[in-house]
Amino acid sequence: MDSAKDEHHEEHDAFLVASQSGDEDLLPSRESELRKPRQYLRLMLECAMALTILGLLIFPPPFASRIEGRRSPVPRFPRRTYTFVPNNRYLHEDMFENNHTTLSTLHNWIELSAAARGYIQVPDRTSYDLGEPYTVAVTRHEEGPGYMMSVFHQLHCLSYLVEHFQQGYGGLELTKEVAHHAAHCFDYIRQALMCAADTSLEGLTKAGPGWGSEHVCKDYDAVLKWANEHGAMPWRNELLPEDSTL
């Protein structure tokens, strides 16, 4: 009898426990209700962080760039499509008739270079992966560290080669110093061309081989603007003689 009563109580208690447990499951606790907004907030923050990281990878900040893991103060410049066409202001076949005509034409190249001839100041250079700087004129009375932007070095080299090509074309015997400088410039431009590796596909045009084809390049106006904003002491002015070159 007592045994039957005990079994009844155990069975009754078991149902009560099950019933109470079910009620608790059906009624969400205040803690779980408070937890939901926090979960949504965390999810939103994680999504925002992921989008921010993705945006920085696709559109890096304009004030600096990282090339193959190297930090550089030079930004990533916008791209622009240019059509290659001959421009007699900078080169033409008649410019080699005499030295004066050659220098007068090469004088126009000065506007293609930065005001400081391509020398750039980097005040916080230790923040970047840069080698030892040159010592350049920062003002008329002060020198400081500076770097040459490669594109302007390339323009100088090409201008030098054009000038001395005319001298050789005119029968002037070139000196050992000219040969040394010319060899440097030829090899420097060779490596610059291979570095840029313009893979634009050129086809047959009425303008002639290489002309009339489109190339996607750095926006050169943007490059000049940045170089002038960060340049060392400007050296060019409107009073430069007409035979001065890069």
Jot down its keywords.
extended, alpha+beta, two-stranded antiparallel sheet, 246 residues, 6 helices
Q: What percent of residues adopt helix (DSSP H or I)?
A: 40-55%
Largest sheet: 3 strands, antiparallel
Strand-residue fraction?
Answer: 5-15%
Distance between the termini: 117 Å
Spell the H/E element sequence.
Answer: HHEEEHEEEHHEH
Structural classification:
alpha+beta
> What is the overall pLDDT average?
84
Work out the radius of gyration: 35 Å
The unreliable regions are 7-27
Please report the total strand number as a whole number: 7
Number of helical runs?
6
Coarse morphology: extended
Record the strand order, biggest sheet. 4-6-5
Keywords: Glycoprotein, Membrane, Oxidoreductase, Transmembrane, Transmembrane helix, Virulence
InterPro entries: UstYa-like (IPR021765)
Membrane topology: Single-pass membrane protein
GO cellular component, one term: membrane
Description:
This protein is α+β, with helices and mostly antiparallel strands. Helix content is 46%, strand content 13%. It contains six helices and seven strands. It has helices at residues 2-26, 30-58, 99-107, 150-169, 176-196, 220-229, and strands at 65-67, 70-72, 79-83, 119-120, 134-139, 142-148, 214-218. The strands form three sheets. The protein has a three-stranded antiparallel β-sheet. A two-stranded antiparallel sheet has the order 1-2. A two-stranded antiparallel ribbon has the order 3-7. Helix 3 runs antiparallel to helix 4 (150-169) and helix 4 (150-169) packs across helix 5 (176-196). It is extended and about 90 Å long. Mean pLDDT is 84; it is low at 7-27.
